[in-house]
């Protein structure tokens, strides 16, 4: 039985690279994002149940801005693209910077209705 998702996701393939905060090695890209988690698209499978210390490097006006957070891998499966894997992560106490980024992405990728001028 398929469980319906209750959290709205925003698709972001190949734009935001995710790094291991300890080693600074790239782990993959954000596939989609919500306030509570994200999907990582990677070349290697992730260990389900493991907690990861992650980092996003966001370009800003003053150079790169880091968003550091911890997340637990909830699931991992092969992607439809050969050699790729999709992994779902639940964030552990998302920091304010992460929440701000999700809200900014939601606004950026949403359609806004504008009142027609008469």
From TrEMBL:
Instruction: Name the Gene Ontology molecular function terms of this record.
Output: cyclic-di-GMP binding
Instruction: List the Pfam families hit by this protein, alphabetically.
Output: PilZ
Q: Where is the PilZ domain?
A: 5-100
Which domain of life does the protein's organism represent?
A: Bacteria
List the InterPro entries hit by this protein, alphabetically: PilZ_domain (IPR009875)
> What is the designated name of this protein?
PilZ domain-containing protein
